[in-house]
Amino acid sequence: MKSCFLFVLVSFLFSFLWAGQDDFFKLRKNMMETQILARGITEKNILSAFMKVKRHLFVSSGFKEKAYRDTPLAIGEGQTINKPFIVAIITYAISPDKDKKVMEIGTGSGYHAAILAELVKEVYTIEIKEKLAQNAIKRLNSLKYTNIKCRIGDGYHGWPEYAPFDGIIMTSAIDHIPEPLVEQLAVGGRMVIPVSYSSEVQELIIIEKQTNGKLKRINLIPVQFVPLIRSKDE
Q1: Residue 25: is it exposed, middle or buried by C-beta count within 10 angstroms (0-12/13-18/19+)?
Q2: pLDDT digits (tens, 9 = 90+) for 15-43
Q3: Quick check: 101 and 125 in contact, CB under 8 A?
């Protein structure tokens, strides 16, 4: 009963606060309610970010009507924009806060970076595909995100110049935890990464760096991500 009341209350509040917005408002609201809130993510700041960031602006024109569906979508270069709930649970898992600095490995369309930018102080995002990176940079600049720094390159090595990071997320699967990313994770920080155990089995996990330097590992959910692309020089 309590969760049902919360659902109705949050739904009403967002209807009131965001009424009169763009033509995709109803689709975005339905996405937030049925794909994120109904699955247990109730933090108002996260729900607000998903209502504010217009997902249809981060997909190609042919996919705009599908942008708010519970599915990943192709964005070109063999890459995808993750389904909304996956973006939400990864975001939730790093405990976003306005004082935090977060690094993203795999900018893609820039959608997840935009969500993070609404929730944290600074976002550092790396994309190895030059065309995707350039398009994302142009898109994020047009949307006036001033707290996002983008770089074209191999995300495996992170961005040591700006380390340590309070949160690190990876949006492609890998069969191990990259040591450079562990080193760049702040004490008390969290890294969320999809680990590939085989060609068919992947698990989204949290790596938390404790004060004694040890790493705490938490398994979240089974997932299916595209594999991490590395530089040919590696």
Answers
A1: middle
A2: 545 544 578 999 999 999 999 999 999 99
A3: no
Angstrom distance (rounded) from CA 57 to CA 41:
24
Bridge partners, 79 (sequence order): 76
Helix (H), strand (E) at residue 87: helix 84-93
Q: How confident is the model at residue 3 (pLDDT cuts 50, 70, 90)?
A: low
Angstrom distance (rounded) from CA 123 to CA 100 = 9
Q: How many CA atoms lie within 13 A of 159 on its CB side?
A: 23
Element (H, E) at 165: strand 165-170
Buried b / exposed e along 77-98 (16+ C-beta atoms within 10 A): bebbbbbbbbbbbbbbbbbbee
